[in-house]
Amino acid sequence: MVSPSTIIVLSFISLVSFCAITAAQKLNAYEALETFNFPRGLLPKGALGYDLDEKSGNFRAYLNGSCSFSLEGSYQLKYTPTITGVISKSRLTNLSGISVKVFFLWLNIVEVRRVDDELQFSVGIASANFAVDNFYECPQCGCGLVCDDRKSQVRNAEANPLASSI
Asked: What is the DSSP string of 13-49?
C-alpha cells in the first residue's frame, strides 16, 4: 500500500512537471497572433514577448524599441515599444501603439479585422483593406520588406567578382 506522503510527493512532482511543460509551451508573439487567425507579419521582426489575459483578450506586445518602416512604397508605419489592445478571433480592437502616415498626418490604427483573405485597418474615420498575403512575412524596422535586396546584390557581386552590374 502506498503511503499518503508518497502520494503527496508524487502529486507535487506531477504538478511541477506540468507547470514546467506549460511554461515551455508558451507561444511567441507571432504564434499567438496566428492562433487568433492573424498573420505574423502584423508585428515587425524583433518582438520580445507579450502578455495576454485570455478571459478579456487584453494584450500587450513588446518590441525591442520604437520601429518605423515603409510598406508598398507609400505607407509609413510606426510602432511604439509597447503595443496594446484587445484580441479575439479575427479582430484586434482598442489598439494603441501603431500609427500610419496618411498624407502629412500620423493617425493611430485603432482596429484590425480579418474578413476572409483580407485585413481591414481602421484609423477610426476611415479604413483600408489589404490582402492577407501581404502580411505573411514580418517587416524589419527601418527597411520594411526590402531589406535583403541590397545585401543579396552585394553578396552576389562578392561571390562572382567578374559579374557586371550592367
From this structure: HHHHHHHHHHHHTPPPHHHHHHHTT--GGGS-TTEEE
- Residue 139 to residue 114: CA distance in whole angstroms: 19
Written as nine digits, the cell of 141 is 524596422
pLDDT in tens, 38-81: 999 999 998 999 999 999 999 999 999 999 988 766 789 999 99
Q: What is the pLDDT of residue 122?
A: 96
Q: What is this structure's pTM?
A: 0.72
Max Cα–Cα distance, the chain, nearest Å: 85
37: alpha, beta or left, given left = phi > 0 and alpha = psi -120 to 50?
Answer: left
**Amino acid (one-letter) located at 1:** M
Q: Taking the CB of residue 80, how many other CB atoms lie within 10 A of it?
A: 14
Q: What CA–CA distance (Å, rounded) separates 38 from 110? A: 16
Structural domains for the chain: 29-159 (2.30.240)
What is the average per-residue pLDDT within 3-23?
45
Q: Which residue has the cell 485603432?
A: 110
Is 50 exceeded by the pLDDT of residue 24?
A: no
On whether the CB atoms of residues 98 and 83 are closer than 8 A, the answer is yes
Closest CA to 42 of 128, 134, 147, 116: 134
